Amino acid sequence: MDPEAFLDLANQVIKLKMYPYFDIAHSLLCALAVREDLGAGAQAFSRKHPLACWLSTMLVIFAGGMVANGLLGEPILAPLKNTPQLVIGTVTWYVVFYTPFDVGYKVAKFLPVKVAAAAMKEIYRAKKVYDGVSHAAKLYPNAYIIMIIVGTLKGNGAGFTKLVERLIRGAWTPTAMETMQPSFYTKASLVASVIFVLDKKTDLISAPHALVYFGIVIFFVYFKLSSILLGIHDPFVPFENLFCALFMGGIWDSLAKLLGKGQPKEETKDAKKTN
């Protein structure tokens, strides 16, 4: 592709309006995530506890803004003032859970519909990450770590509120902590936040901002579609394993076991003394 045409396309992507189509895609996939998290009893639960079902779905839809606002000292419920998005979220929730013969859920799960919605949601995610970094930069111009944290939370807030979201539905799962087992979306949002901060606050990235933003969008969309169509769920895992082996003690633990020394042997001796 001609470089000027590519740059023009990048400028068009960065100017995309999220309302209403991208908001619909985001809300639809959030409602689907809640329903799938409920499992086989989703339909019965939605009939018996509609308020809890609605509240948990709204929390997933608006999670990024709520969590980021709480950390920045802003009103947590401020994202709910966006009435059009609240209406879209409620309508998509109703479609996924309550349409006759489950038509809405079946259509949303239809592969072409799901693929299109997933691609749109990733464009939406890139926008949210960038907005989070930009907003934090206005409040704390020199606090890079705050920009990265807020951008990450904006990109995958639902992952960090899963514990509360399930608690609203009466399920207590204390191990469902995003900090213990970060999902790919959290890792990708973290990487995107770092790149946006470097682009915004340093001279390390010389490419035009539109190309940087477009590159993040392509990254998000490509790996989301790869997870749906090819089953590639987390491309960061090999790099994490290598990093942990080299810098987090993995290689030294393995060497200690190989030499018959170190912690594993000491633990065995302690266990024998206890017995």
TrEMBL record:
Q: Does the keyword Phosphoprotein apply?
A: no
Q: Does the keyword Magnesium apply?
A: no
Kindly name one Pfam family recorded for this protein: TRIC
Its placement in the membrane is given as:
Multi-pass membrane protein
Which keywords appear in this protein's UniProt record, sorted alphabetically? Answer: Ion channel, Ion transport, Membrane, Potassium, Potassium channel, Potassium transport, Transmembrane, Transmembrane helix, Transport
Report one GO cellular component.
endomembrane system
Taxonomy, superkingdom: Eukaryota
Cell compartment(s), UniProt = Endomembrane system
InterPro entries assigned: TRIC_channel
UniProt main location, coarse: membrane
Bilayer-crossing residues are 51-72, 84-101, 210-230
An annotated Gene Ontology molecular function: potassium channel activity
Protein family: Belongs to the TMEM38 family.
Identify this protein by name. Trimeric intracellular cation channel type 1B.1
Q: Which organism is it from?
A: Euphydryas editha (Edith's checkerspot)
| Organism lineage string | Eukaryota, Metazoa, Ecdysozoa, Arthropoda, Hexapoda
